[in-house]
Amino acid sequence: VATPVGEEISTIANNGSPVKACVIIDVCPSQAPPKTFPDILHDLDAMRTLPLHAVASMKEAYEALKGVVKNEEELRSHLFTNFFATTNQKSSGQEQEQQQQAAGPSWRANLSVLLHDLHHVVLPDHPDLIQHRVEVPTLFVFGQDSPYNTMEGRAKIDLFFANAVQVEIPNCGHFVHIERRDLLADIVADFAAEHV
After folding, report:
1. Do residues 142 and 190 lie in contact, with contact meaning Cβ atoms separated by under 8 Å?
2. What is the pLDDT of residues 36-52, one digit of tens each?
3. How far apart are the C-alpha atoms of 151 and 30, rounded to whole Å?
4. Residue 40: CA count within 13 A, CB half-sphere
5. Is there a contact between 52 and 61 (Cβ–Cβ < 8 Å)?
6. Disulfide check for 55: which of 29, 35, 61, 142 has CB 3.0–4.6 Å away?
């Protein structure tokens, strides 16, 4: 789940939803922007303005990203997972290479839309969501040192989630899935075994 509150809660909360359980990693309902909000805006804009048409290889694209996104290596690697070269998967060999060259590399997300609407995603205003409480078992996993792990946000979880469990992973920041992958996998596996 990319946003802690919003359409996702309404979707999960609907009685006909096929969702049996939910895992949310290092985000929580909050009206306050994270401390890293200016960095997010900078990085999205840097990614959007990166001249991808001039990139000849994945390595070259990563190096170009390294030049514009000044944050730590882990963040750049995470952002780079959204980079791809457009291809037609049904094609093969030379035909696929020609299509890739014609389409060129791109980002999976529409960065212009994200930049324009990010304040709606990060700072949602949905006072009516309380009538759409999520009833399915929901696991919230937080990195102890993450800027998104706030008392204010975590206190609101029970307003939106009727059956929530909160777990905090020590010595871990926002990128829980990178920093403490094994521990996160164990926590999620135990939760899934019990609820799915």
Report:
1. no
2. 667 778 888 888 888 88
3. 10
4. 14
5. yes
6. 61
